[in-house]
Structure formats: structure tokens, C-alpha cells
Amino acid sequence: ASTLGAAAAQSGRYFGAAISQSHLGDSAYVNTWGTEFNSVTPENEMKWDTVEPSRNQFNFGPADQIVSQARSRGMSVRGHTFVWYQQIPGWVNGLNGNDLRAAISNHINQVAGHWKGQIYAWDVVNEAFEENGTRRQWFVQQRLGDGYMEDAFRTARAADPAAKLCYNDYNTDGINAKSTGIYNMVRDFKSRGVPIDCVGFQSHLGQGANLSSYQANLQRFADLGVDVQITELDVGGSGSAQAATYRAVTQACLAVARCTGITPWGITDKYSWRAGDTPLLFDGNYNKKQAYTAVLDAL
Ligand code: XIL
Question: GH10 domain location, by residue (predicted)?
Fold first, then answer.
């Protein structure tokens, strides 16, 4: 196959990109997305501060632009994200107890409902663990306790039963304290029937990343009965070292039957959120980098 999406499809996987509505006027950006990729994650447009800037006032327009282009091209869409401690509007921070629970539930119901049947997988909860494997002590955790997470998954399941429901996090690129904390939560959810279908591994990496237990980590989650996905891949660096890290991540996903797809966090270094790290597969002029060839060959 001669494109990333077609190569991934040979093994039944998708190959996506994070896309920003603000760049949809750049024809090289849109063309590269349409040619090379067969899935998308809106980079910011489905986050709480964008979709519900005031309580129960919804702004779906920016993400709708991405979703409609994706659907017209037959791409799958990853929804990102319902419950996260960042990019959350200020009004949520003023709430407590049942009022806070109701706001989270309404947020999930309205947003999941808007795109019901159109989302392959939702990142229901994002980045809710500390590096030491305990729950992140952000205000929702402090006010509602551990239960906010399973409540979010149950609400999302009812709102869009066809979407796979994921937990998503970073610095989980091997067997470590953080990934083990998440692993224990997923095992607990599965044993109690809390609806969870997948775990996302963001994989914001540097070219020297130690990936010695990367595949084994994906596999131990898969063995719990969930899919795994590489959801926000980018690798700071350049040349053959960067390419080797991209290759290793791709090979690890391909080696795990339940690893269903890979999404780099953008297309071109020109627009990466990691300015200066040149972490993506296309350079600032949309030329394919060594990392691109390494991934295509590994798929
Ligand atoms: C980043 C976006 O890429 C930036 O444009 C934005 O300013 C901040 O958020 N983990 C996540 C993503 O789950 O949502 C973040 O995206 C990167 C880290």
C-alpha cells in the first residue's frame, strides 16, 4: 500500500491524525489528511471549553466541520474528550455535589447525543491518574471521589451505545506505576461490569524513549478484554533516531491483535502543539520524513 491509511487497513486497523478546524483553509493540510489518513481526532474542538463554554449552551460548529469532512471521506472519528482537568470552562469549577454530577452528566449526554452513531471511540476520561499510579487530585476528584469516573462511562454508554468507550492517558508507554494504576482500574471496571471498551496510549515521546516494555504493556491491557489504541503519537527529534521510535511504536501495535489503530497528534511539524520538536511524519512543507517511511514500512 502507498498511503498510511491503506497500509493500516491491510491488517484491519486505522491510521488517523489529529486535525484542527483552524487549518481547514490550508489546502495542502486538507489534501494530505484526505490522501494519507482514514481516521481523525479533533485536536481541540470537542473539549469542554469549546463545546459548552456556558452551562447548557453548546457550540458544536467547529467540530461539526471536521466530522462532516471525515464522514464524507469514509473516515472514522475519535471523540476527544468528555472529562478532563484541562480546557474545562470556568463555570464548572463553581459547582459541587449533585449539581456538579448533573453538569457532567448533561455535558456527556448532550455531546455524545449530538454525534450519536458517528463516533468510533470516545475518550470518556482523559489524564485522570498521577505518575505514581494514584488518582489525579483535581477538583472533580476532590469533590466527587473516585465514582465520577465510572459514572461518566455509564452515562456515555447510555448516550451513544455504538461508540467504544476509552480511558486515555500519557506517560503510559511501558509497564510503570502510572500504567499499573490504570490497569488496576480497568480490571476493576471489567470485573464489576462498568462499561469500558478501550484504553488510549497518547505516546507523546522523545526519540530516545525507552520502549522496552511498550508492547508488553499494550498486551496486558488487551488481555483484560479491552481494545488498545495509540491516540496522540508524536516523537520529538529527527532523522533515523526519530524514525526508529516511530517504527517501534508501529510494530508494537501491529503485534497486539487488539491494538486497533494509531493516531499521530497532527500531520505537519508546521502546526504541531510541540513547537520546535518537529515530532510529526510530515515536515513543515508537507514533505514525507524518514519517520513516515519507517511507519509505512512497518504497517
Ligand atoms: C493539546 C492541543 O494539541 C493543543 O492545541 C492545546 O493547546 C492543548 O491541548 N494531551 C491531550 C490533548 O489529551 O488534548 C492535548 O492537546 C495534548 C496532551
Answer: 1-298
